[in-house]
Amino acid sequence: MNFFLKSISYILHPLLMPLVGAIIYFTSAPRYIPNDIIRIKVFGLLILTVLIPIVLFFFLKSFGTITSIHLEETKQRKIPLLLQSILLIVAIKMIIDVYHYPELYFFFLGILFSSLSAIFMVLFSIKASLHMIGISGVTMFTVALSIHFGMNLTLLITSLMIANGLVATSRLHCKAHTNLELILGFLIGVIPQLTLINFWL
Predict the structure, then answer these.
(1) What SS3 state is found at 15?
(2) To which H or E segment does residue 139 belong?
């Protein structure tokens, strides 16, 4: 059980959540999108939101700026979150067209706002759970997609809700966060998505 709960923090790492949301969108949206376009978009997002951040992590770790990919210490979060925000802006500008993929565009814009909110919290030495921000944002986006397209995504939404519980349990088990930090992370993930739904739902 100990191994399982610890592995959840890696399997459902916040770095993966933008890509997960994009995959859910491309596999669920009932509109024709050529497979070649989907592959290009997903590959581009993989590079910008996963591979480059991993490279930057090792770069920052080599300089002693951060010590863990989970960014347990509040003071170590500012630079990685700023870099992530810049990469999200690049993804929004270069990969996601608001006219062709409005739902995905506002999903990533919501992630950007969540990231900026987390940076704002760091300024006050508040450590919101980045894991909860990631998984809760994807969950809210999936619920909105289900309503928007009139699709039955009950199984997927249920799985994501279970994932929310597993992430919270994992972070508590690892003593990485308090209950308040988990709730704060959940709200920072959900509220931007919920707010931006008004532009596309």
Answers:
(1) helix
(2) helix 130-149
CB count, 10 Å around CB of 92?
20
| Token representation of residue 81 | 């979150």
Chain centroid to CA 4 = 21
Query: What is the residue whose two structure tokens read 């999108």?
Result: 33
For 5, residues 6+ apart whose C-beta sits below 8 A from its C-beta are 166, 169, 170, 173, 174
CA distances to 41, 69, 123, 163, 171 from 7, rounded to whole Å, are 28, 13, 30, 12, 11
Tens of pLDDT along 144-181? 999 999 889 999 999 999 999 999 998 888 787 888 99
pTM over 0.85: yes
Does position 34 have pLDDT exceeding 80, yes or no?
yes
Three-class SS state of 152: coil
User: What distance in Å separates the CA atoms of residue 111 and residue 114, rounded to the nearest whole number?
Assistant: 5
- Percent composition of the chain: helix, strand, coil (DSSP 3-state, to 5): 80, 0, 20
